[in-house]
Amino acid sequence: MNKDLQNTPPESIILEIRAGAGGKEASLFASDLATMYTKYAQKQGWKTTLVSSSPSDLGGYKEIIIEVANPEAYQTLIQESGVHRVQRVPTTEKAGRIHTSTASVAVLPMYPAQTLEIKPQDLEITFSRAGGPGGQNVNKVETAVRILHKPSGIIVQSQSERSQQRNRERAMDILRAKLIEAQKEKETGSLAKVRREQIGTQDRSEKIRTYNFLQDRITDHRIKKSWHNIEKILDGNLDPIVKAFKKHSQ
Known about the structure:
This protein is of the alpha+beta class and 250 residues long. It has a domain at 3-116 and 190-249: Alpha-Beta Plaits (2-Layer Sandwich), CATH 3.30.70. The chain contains six helices and eleven strands. The protein has helices at 24-43, 73-77, 164-187, 191-199, 230-234, 239-249; strands at residues 12-19, 47-55, 61-69, 82-88, 99-110, 123-128, 144-149, 154-158, 209-212, 217-220, 225-228. The strands form two sheets. Strands 2-3-1-5-4-9-10-11 form an eight-stranded mixed β-sheet. A three-stranded antiparallel β-sheet has the order 6-7-8, with helices on one face. Strand 9 (209-212) and strand 10 form a beta hairpin.
């Protein structure tokens, strides 16, 4: 790895959003978070690309990965890493009971290819057909790419591009980001600790932020600050939260 990596601003980031505890509600919440970050990025004029997604049979997503291309994205959104908890009454809940669900967010900086060499013999690459939810828009050509990095066991995939080559390049970018992050953590001797801080165990009790719909309140448990108007924030108006974290870090 390049020794100056720490001083190199990442060109873009990868947002990994995964449904945690809570079944259908967790999948729907993961989808809500993905929409929130995408809309926020677009309001900033940042380019966003859906890299891959795993729709849930229950609705929403089991996992969704988005690339945000802008040098400011990492410092702006790094505080979003962790377990997010939602408390609301599902539309299918006839008794009006509040359900608590979680989704995890990981923010990974991406760097140019020359920052880390990846040996071809360490990779196992497979291809498949890319398709939309419910079998729609199924591609007749095997353009989706899945890469296993054998030494680390890390698996990445990309299915958003129309060509196999572009999906392979994007998957390699994600793999590089994950390997660099793992190496950083290893060098600081805090791999397990940092990983727990990034996504935790996805347990309901382990959270960085709670979205309480009945009280129309979002609370961040790290800086002990709350905001109202959940729907507006989930519609991409993250500025109050971003500004609060910037002020807190000063």
